[in-house]
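ingest -> validate -> predict -> emit
validate: passed (alphabet ok, no gaps, 344 aa)
predict: started
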Amino acid sequence: RAELESLDAKAAARGDEHSRVMVLWALAMLEWLAGRWQLALEHARAAYDITEQTQYPHGLAWVGRVKGLIEADLGLVAEARASVAESLEFTRATGNELSTMYCLGTLGRIELAVGNIEAAGAHLRALPGRLLAGGIHDPTIPAWGDAIETMVALGEISQAREVLEAYELSAERLGSPWALATAARGRGLVEAAGGDLDRAFAAYERAAAGLEAFPYPFELGRTLLCLGAARRRARQKALARDALEQALAIFGDLGAGLWTVKAEAELRRISGRRRATLDESLTETELRVAELAAGGRSNKEIAAALHVSVHTVSAHLSHVYRKLGIRSRTQLAASKPVREASKV
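emit:
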């Protein structure tokens, strides 16, 4: 982040708008990965504005699809479709196969998020094969994980398994923590669909553990959502509720409205009354976590301050959100328990 921000400042100082487009595009991707989506969108919009002002068409091929990716995850569906459609028109007209595949991947991600699985399959099903045919093995392309999830949802388990095996190899070669976690989530989905829940649980837990040291909150949220759904199907209600509440807290912090809906739907599928507690007030640890989160600390920073794991912080925050009946850090900062604690 520091390096990219420095490059952007230097490019702005010398009036190099084309370089700014590429740097802002990279900054947008960085903040998207880090879960700071509003800032990511600001960077993407700034890059997009420069491409229009300077008539830099090739910049649009990259900036538009990234802007659409961020908008999709924020639930800005109409805006996302428009952003990607504009980029896709240019990439197809210029014969840019790689950018075309990126755009199709983002369109598939949009449909997956809104629950249009057939439409998602139309965009994503053939993408892994096209990427491999073009010699593109980069496991940090979001389309890999989205394609596997979509295939599983469509019941195309053997195809999903085949794609997953190629993806796992690429993730292992690169050693990217994000890619390894995404591949592990894909393994969990495939094993769960095949009926091997023990292997599915192990894969999901491996993915979650691998993300503890890294600030990739959305991937952790998706992993916990999958884990919670699998626990629910195994009738492990308490464990399912824990995972789903953590996922819900993460999606609320991110502003991932469409994924919040998915987590809430899974929670409603857990029969029985909500887990009882003797005291709905916050514990001392929960209150401390809440104070730090409301003060703007990230989960990683809170974990370091309290000498616990990031996963533990996520668990505490999910309990805080449930007890206070809130979904985001903005609501947390305005909540009565945290306001009163800060006065003390």
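The chain has 20 helices and no strands.
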